[in-house]
Amino acid sequence: MTDHVSAVNSAVEAMDGLLDRLEKLDAITPDLRSALQRLANRSADVAGITLGEQRWDGVVLTDDEAFDSAPVPLIVTDPLGFVIRANVKMLELTETAPGTLLGMHSGDYIHSDDYDFLADIWVRMQVETDFNTAITEFRLLLPRGARWVRGAIRASRNDDLSLANLVVHFTDVDDKHAVEQALDRSSRKFGDLLDSLPDPIVRVNRAFEVQFANPAARQYRNLGRYHEWPRVTEENRAEYLEVAERCWATGESTTFEHSMLAGDDVLWCESTFVPEVGPSSKVETLLVIWRDQTTRRRHEELLAYRATHDALTGLPNRARFSDLLEVAVERQVTSAELGQKRPIAVLFLDLDRFKFVNDSLGHLAGDDLLKNVAERLTGAIRPGDVIGRLGGDEFTILAEDISREDAVMMAERILERLKEPFMINGREFISSASIGVVSSETPAGSTDLMRWADSAMYRAKGLGRSRVATYEEVLAPEVMDQLELDQMIRSAAERGELELYYQPEVLIATSEIVGVEALLRWHHPTKGLLGAERFIPVAEDNGMIVPIGAWVLRQACEQVSQWIADGLAGSEFMLRVNLSPRQMDRDGLPKVITETLEETGIRPTNLCLEITETSLMSDTEHTQVSLEDLASVGITLAVDDFGTGYSSLSSLKRFPIDVLKIDKSFISGMTKKSRDEAIVRTVITLSDTLNLTPTAEGVETEDQRALLEEMGCPRGQGFLFSRPVPADEFAELLRDGIPSAQPTQRDS
């Protein structure tokens, strides 16, 4: 029987332990608690059925061994609450000697704060005959202090259902209460901390429902017209939810700045999401901390506005207008790439005799006039056009998708608006302006457009003020020609309009072809075949010379490689290619040359790069470094047009030069002018002294050839031998040799 009682008592204790653990995990629902309590009560009933041969709820409990060996603290009281039995575990719990508890009233061991609700239970058991069990938690007063216990109370009744005695078994739950109290204190402190912070803080669940809000957050709620929480604006909502979702998933705090709507107000907030992890180690809620950034953002926006707008008129200033013009040019370039036209017009306006207003009426009156002019301009343009004030009395207008004719009409409309009198200091004042107009259907640089419009404006002033002038009226035909070349050269290679011509380099004495110079030609769609002097300066200015130069080098190397492979040229055949200063300024040129030689099969000793004497002397230190890098590749270097750049003997000694090409101006005059002959002789002697190879350019007559041979010049180029010809014609020269006579027509 003792084993049976022990097993039942163990089951009761296990049930109490299960209930305790579930409560610690905060995983027990009210329904589950009720069911477990009923099960625990039922277990207590089973345990109280027998104790040896007697009932626990009987007046007499005869099996002392079974009672004393129960695994939980037990007491039995009479109907008034006086202790009549206490087992060993109870003595251990209360730290009392055997017999000490007997006759003591149980209320003497109950904490005063818990006495009343336990007395209520005792009263109910006295008067309600069907109320026989109760489980509750309370504090026992023990020698070491008050301690929380769970008491399972069982009423035993007499035959007339009157209360006979009470059987109570106890479970120590003091540790659980200590944890709960600590958590409660921590929660209260945390709540107090959140309440004291000036930043709005809310706790939200997965559905973004607010579960907690500190006072600062509740003030934000009152900003709303209908007392709603501020809402994230539509433009920031998707990113806001994405940031929050990342916080839910990773458990990492994240800060995000966004705009919010509080009623009719737009606020800027810096939201910090702080994940709160529950017992399951998963994020259960988010603390969202709002920090108002509205003042800072508005201040930044104001500073940005002031940095890009004119303080007097509120119009875009010079920097802002330039940026907007640059964007418009980029749109024009994109449209051109798609085969579409997007013309741009820039109007440059300058008030006539504005200085007279300042001098006669004062600067305040002048400022008033400028503001009125800005208003008139705004009323004279189309929606989407941009007006800027560059400073002083200068205004600019940017118009897109507008024809030249419509741009001029806009300028004339502005002049008409300005003819209406202005009221300045209570007096009527009539102003006028000079307007320059530039219109471009093909992409042009924003700086060029501004410069051209400015030039047109000055032409309008020169014509008598209060009028409109276009840039086309300013331009000379040759300038317009350069403008067209500037635009078309940018894509000439892609259109297949560029071609290399070849002019032979020969031995003066025998006319044997020993090399070739590659010369660029442009098959312009309307101007015909153009020599390099027509477009290379333009390519130098707009930067296209770099990709064009790379194209020339590769094409020439491939062609010479083919001639060598076909047996038309020997292994010592020299290819000469002109090198632009802009190419020399680019990093990585030696690598480009090396890769080109390797890919085309040309040896470095077959390539000579030519740089003009003027370019050589423009920045000697930089040029020396660049030429030394090129020489390290193993190629030959030549100074072109020598004699025109004022280089000195000491300068030439510094550079890794192999060839001096004597400028054709000296060659053409040496048979007529003794000074030119003396210069040519000196250059040839200088070349011998410096161990350089002289080459004469522009040899056109037999007399020139004979004189050069007599001077000891080994090599030459010129129309006497051949003009520059296409690759197929040059191949014929390689096969047939140089004819005995050539025309003397000049070319380059």
Q: Helicity, in percent?
A: 40-55%
Whole-number mean pLDDT: 81
The top-level CATH class of the largest domain is: Alpha Beta
Topology-level CATH name of the largest domain: TIM Barrel
Strand order of the largest sheet: 19-20-22-23-24-25-26-27
**How large is the count of helical segments?**
27
Which radius of gyration do the C-alpha atoms yield? Answer: 51 Å
Number of domains: 4
Q: Number of DSSP strands? A: 27
**Reported CATH architecture of the largest domain:** Alpha-Beta Barrel
Q: What is the CATH superfamily classification of the largest domain?
A: EAL domain
User: For the terminal residues, how far apart are their CA atoms?
Assistant: 128 Å
Question: Biggest sheet, open or closed, and with what strands and sense?
Answer: 8 strands, mixed, barrel
Shape, please? Answer: elongated
Write the layout of secondary structure elements.
Blueprint: H1 2-24, H2 30-47, H3 64-68, E1 74-77, E2 83-86, H4 88-94, H5 112-127, E3 133-142, E4 145-157, E5 163-172, H6 174-196, E6 201-204, E7 210-213, H7 215-221, E8 231-232, H8 234-250, E9 254-262, E10 265-277, E11 283-292, H9 294-308, H10 318-337, E12 344-351, H11 354-361, H12 363-380, E13 386-391, E14 394-400, H13 404-418, E15 422-424, E16 427-429, E17 433-440, H14 446-462, E18 468-470, H15 471-474, H16 477-488, E19 498-507, E20 513-524, E21 528-530, H17 532-542, H18 545-565, E22 574-578, H19 581-584, H20 589-600, E23 607-612, H21 613-618, H22 620-631, E24 636-642, H23 649-654, E25 659-662, H24 664-669, H25 674-689, E26 693-696, H26 702-711, E27 715-716, H27 727-736
Parallel strand pairs: 17-18, 20-22, 22-23, 23-24, 24-25, 25-26, 26-27
Antiparallel strand pairs: 1-2, 1-5, 3-4, 4-5, 6-7, 6-11, 8-9, 9-10, 10-11, 12-14, 12-17, 13-14, 15-16, 19-20, 19-27, 20-21
